[in-house]
Write a structure and sequence with these properties.
By secondary structure, the protein is mostly helical. About 65% of the residues lie in helices and about 0% in strands. The chain contains nine helices and no strands. The longest helix has about 50 residues. The radius of gyration is 41 Å and the shape is globular. It starts with a helix and ends in a 7-residue tail after the last helix.
Length: about 300
C-alpha cells in the first residue's frame, strides 16, 4: 500500500508535456508571432528595395520610353545651348583676345612694375609685331596687359579695407562703395576717351581693352601711396604719391603718343596741323587725368 506522501511527491515532479504546434503556453501572456508570416509594416520589402509594391509590367513598359525620351531631349537641348553660346560668346566677351592680355610671366610683371614706377630711362616704347600681330606681353614689356591692372585693382580694394580698419571706419558698405566708385571712374574714363577719339576722328589701333589696361596701371601707384601713408603718415603718402603721379604721367604720354600721334604721322597729317594739335591735347588730357584720380581715390584713406 503506497504512502500518501510519496504520491504527492511523484505528482509534483510530473513534467509538463511540450506544447504542440498551434497550441499556446498557458503561462505565456502574449502570442509569439516571430515565426508567423509578417504583416503590415513588418512585411518583406519589395524587390525594388523601397518598401513599395512593385509596379506592373505594363507600367514599367510605358515608363521606360518616356524617361529615355526625356533624357534624349535634355541632352539635345544642352548640346544646342552649348553650341549657341560658343557661337555668340565672342560678340560680348572676346575670350580669344583676353587670353592675349593675360599671357604674362613673372619676369614681365617685375619689369613692367619697374617701368611704371621709373619710366624715365626707358628708350624704346614701340610695341613689337610678328606678322602684323602684336607679340604676347611676356615677350614685350611695352605691350599692354590686363593681369597687372586686375591684380592692382583687387589689391587696392584690400589696402583700402586695411586703411579703413586701422581708423575704425571699416564696414562692408563703405568698402563696396570704394570699389564701385573706382569702377565707375574707370568706366567714365573709357567712355570719355572713346567719345573724344570719335569726335577728333582719330584712326588708331587703340582698342577698348587697351584703354582699360593703360588706365588700370594707375592703381599700382595708388597702392604704394596708401601703404606708405599707413606706415609713415601723410608726409610719406604725399611723397610717394607725387612720385607715382609723375611716373604715370610720363608713362601715359610716351605710350599713348605712339598710339594716337604715330597714326596721324602715318596718314600724312602735318605736325602743326589743327587736327594733330587736338590729338596732342587729347593725349595730354588723358595723361593728366591719371594723377588727379589717383589723389581723389586715395586721399581720404590716409589720416
Amino acid at each position: 500500500m503506497p504512502r500518501p506522501g510519496r504520491g504527492r511527491i511523484a505528482a509534483s515532479k510530473r513534467r509538463v508535456p511540450a506544447s504542440q504546434p498551434g497550441m499556446t503556453d498557458p503561462h505565456q501572456f502574449f502570442d509569439d508571432t516571430s515565426s508567423a508570416p509578417s504583416r503590415g509594416y513588418g512585411g518583406q520589402p519589395s524587390p525594388g528595395g523601397l518598401g513599395y509594391p512593385t509596379s506592373s509590367p505594363e507600367a514599367a513598359f510605358l515608363a521606360a520610353p518616356m524617361s529615355n525620351m526625356a533624357m534624349a531631349y535634355g541632352s539635345s537641348l544642352a548640346a544646342h545651348g552649348k553650341e549657341l553660346v560658343d557661337k555668340n560668346i565672342d560678340r560680348f566677351i572676346p575670350v580669344s583676345k583676353l587670353k592675349y592680355y593675360f599671357a604674362v610671366d613673372t619676369v614681365y610683371v617685375g619689369k613692367k612694375l619697374g617701368l611704371l614706377v621709373f619710366p624715365y630711362l626707358h628708350q624704346d616704347w614701340e610695341v613689337q609685331y610678328q606678322q602684323d600681330t602684336p607679340v604676347a606681353p611676356r615677350f614685350d614689356i611695352n605691350a599692354p596687359d590686363l593681369y597687372i591692372p586686375a591684380m592692382a585693382f583687387i589689391t587696392y580694394i584690400l589696402v583700402a579695407g586695411l586703411a579703413l580698419g586701422t581708423q575704425d571706419r571699416f564696414s562692408p558698405d563703405l568698402l563696396g562703395l570704394q570699389a564701385s566708385s573706382a569702377l565707375a571712374w574707370l568706366t567714365l574714363e573709357v567712355v570719355a576717351i572713346l567719345l573724344s577719339l570719335y569726335l577728333v576722328t582719330v584712326n588708331t589701333d587703340l582698342t577698348t581693352i587697351d584703354l582699360v589696361a593703360f588706365l588700370g596701371y594707375k592703381y599700382v601707384g595708388m597702392i604704394g601711396g596708401v601703404l606708405t601713408g599707413l606706415l609713415f603718415g601723410k608726409i610719406g603718402y604725399y611723397l610717394v604719391l607725387a612720385w607715382c603721379c609723375v611716373s604715370i604721367f610720363v608713362f601715359m604720354i610716351r605710350t599713348l603718343r605712339l598710339k594716337i600721334l604715330a597714326q596721324a604721322a602715318a596718314e600724312g597729317v602735318p605736325v602743326r596741323g589743327a587736327r594733330n594739335q587736338l590729338r596732342m591735347y587729347l593725349t595730354m588730357a588723358v595723361a593728366a587725368a591719371q594723377p588727379v584720380l589717383m589723389y581723389w581715390l586715395t586721399f581720404h584713406l590716409v589720416r
